[in-house]
Amino acid sequence: MRMANNNPLKIAVASGKGGTGKTTIATSFALSIINDISESLLFLDCDVEAPNAHLFLKPQLTEEKPVEILIPEVNESLCTHCGECAKVCQFQAIAVLGNKTLVFPQLCHGCGSCTMICPANAIQEIPKSIGVLQKGTAGEIKFARGVMDIGEPMAVPIIRQLKKWVAPLEPQITIIDSPPGTSCPVVESIRGSDFLILVTEPTPFGFHDLKLAHQVAKDLQIPAGVIINRENGAFSELEDYCKEENLPILMRVPFRRNIAEGIAKGRNLIEILPEMSASFQNIYHQITTLVK
Fold first, then answer.
1. Suppose 242 and one of 37, 177, 193, 247 were both cysteines; which one would form an S-S bond, judging by CB atoms 3.0 to 4.6 Å apart?
2. Please, are residues 183 and 84 in contact by the beta-carbon 8 Å criterion?
3. Do residues 79 and 211 share a domain?
């Protein structure tokens, strides 16, 4: 059995769509279990396009590191405009038009293929900032996040560098707040996790996107459980799916006005409903039992 006090335990929180309360659940989960465990806990906000876990955890950020990727710069005096660089670039980030070689930085993934293949050595790589990494503490919780620069299209390099940056901290428990959806940033965020909490809502849209997120978990072979947020009566399709797929329903958060008002004011779930702290602690102990 993979227990937190023996081996590092990584628990990711995800959702197939935005607005399900993923960050609310993730931050409340961290705050609930930190007083119930003796191990070190790291909260990792990987929703780099719109990080907002800090609104609930209120960390003191003490370190910052820029995130850069290397993009090509063409020396036109050396370039023969042979087009080999454009042929090798699968992202169409470089193009040759007549006697001019054009670079489109926002399409570049920084793979370096164009630099390596250029027969005239006319291409060098220069750093381009795409965001920052930040680290600090929120009480007893270690906290880190990535923040993508406005207008940048690629979150994955930031998430990848964020996970490498915090690796030396060697926390016993890591809670990962992943981006919404099922695209590459989500895959990069939850990759290597031991358990995935899928936050959904009992609506047709929420149910549809839950199935997509669950498929990602199955493809990555990560065991998962479900938290139903804003529950307001039975939603048989969702319940039946969880039974058919052996997806345990870990918690049900009621659909109440006072919860919505509290969240809007930046209060976490256990501040609004203190009795839910015990429920989150039970989820943690249930996860340690499920992860083997």
1. 247
2. no
3. no
Q: pLDDT tens, 15-33?
A: 988 889 999 999 999 999 9
| Structure confidence by residue, pLDDT tens digits, 147-179 | 999 989 899 999 999 999 999 998 999 999 999
List of residues 6+ apart from 188 with CB closer than 8 A: 46, 155, 156, 159, 160
Q: How many domains does the chain have?
A: 2
Mean pLDDT in residue range 39-50: 95
Residue 13 has pLDDT above 70, yes or no: yes
Beta bridge partners of 41: 141, 173
The answer to whether residues 83 and 159 belong to one domain is: no
- Given the structure tokens 């990535």, which residue do they identify? 146
Domain match, 164 and 217 both: yes
Question: Which of 129, 154, 172 is a domain's end point?
Answer: 129
Last residue of a domain, one of 109, 129, 149: 129
In a 10 Å sphere around its CB, with 0-12 CB exposed, 13-18 middle and 19+ buried, how is residue 262 labelled? middle
Strands 141-148 and 41-45 come out as parallel
Q: What is the rounded distance in angstroms from the CA atom of residue 72 to the CA atom of residue 133?
A: 23
pTM greater than 0.85: yes
The pLDDT value given to residue 161: 96
Q: Are residues 44 and 149 in the same domain?
A: yes
C-alpha dihedral over 232, 235, 239, 244, to 10 degrees? -160
What is the biggest distance separating any 2 CA atoms in the chain, rounded to whole angstroms?
70
Specify whether the CB–CB gap between 139 and 27 falls below 8 A.
Answer: no
Write phi, then psi, for 117 (nearest 5 degrees).
-90, -15
CA distances from 140 to 12, 33, 133 (A): 19, 11, 20
Residue range(s) defining the domain that contains residue 104: 69-129
